[in-house]
Amino acid sequence: MHDIASESDKISMKYYQSTQLQSHVKKDMTPVSEADLAIENHIRELVTKRHPELSIVGEEYGETIGSSNIKLIIDPIDGTKNFIAGIPFFSTLLAIEEDDEIIAGMISAPAAGDKLWAQKGHGAFHNNKQVHVSKQADLSKALAFHCSIFGPEGPGDPTQLLNLLSKTYRQRGFADYLSPCYFICGAGEFSIDFSLKPWDMAAIKILTEEAGGIFTDIHGNKTIYSGNYIASNGLLHEEILSYFQDQK
Predict the structure, then answer these.
(1) d(CA 124, CA 169)
(2) What's this model's pTM, rounded to 2 decimal places?
(3) What is the pLDDT of residues 72-96, one digit of tens each?
(4) Domains parsed from the chain with CATH numbers
């Protein structure tokens, strides 16, 4: 993943803030740029040469089935809207899934100078420094990182989310990969997001767990396939889940 991220970073920074950048809106009404396509294509070429047995699933080109039970999950640019607008908070998200379990993940954000990675049983790291989630156990003293509250990227009915956020000390709605990165590094107590795909969440899951936290959907399931997640320091997880119980 380090080798892949190094290559993807070069491509994204080549296109970043280019006045010639081409982009369009896909059928699902999300944007895609030529950088997204170039990065995923290049990653797939690298993997095919080095590990042709791997399965690959990516945001732009779907799933390719290999002979192995190991799968590489790719989001070539998380934060494409930021990327197109020239905002430096975008990243490449990578994860490895083996037998339906995420065992490694990486977030590489070259414009911001951030790289986070984790491997099952080996801890979570930010720019070569091991990181841990916070130890705050009081929701009223918590810093909450949240997603869009309204619109197509929000939870639909924001009532439960707003109720939860109202019980915290501070709230910050940073974009895309950035919120969970701050949380994983111990700067806040939890991160929550909705309207997501598996490639948006896979790296976040293993990073959260290896930093000492808990990652589930809003119903408490430890999955990346529900379209939403709560990543917390673990001490607040059950209390946070309680705000969404009536959505089951």
Answers:
(1) 26
(2) 0.95
(3) 999 999 999 999 999 999 999 999 9
(4) 2-130 (3.30.540.10), 139-247 (3.40.190.80)
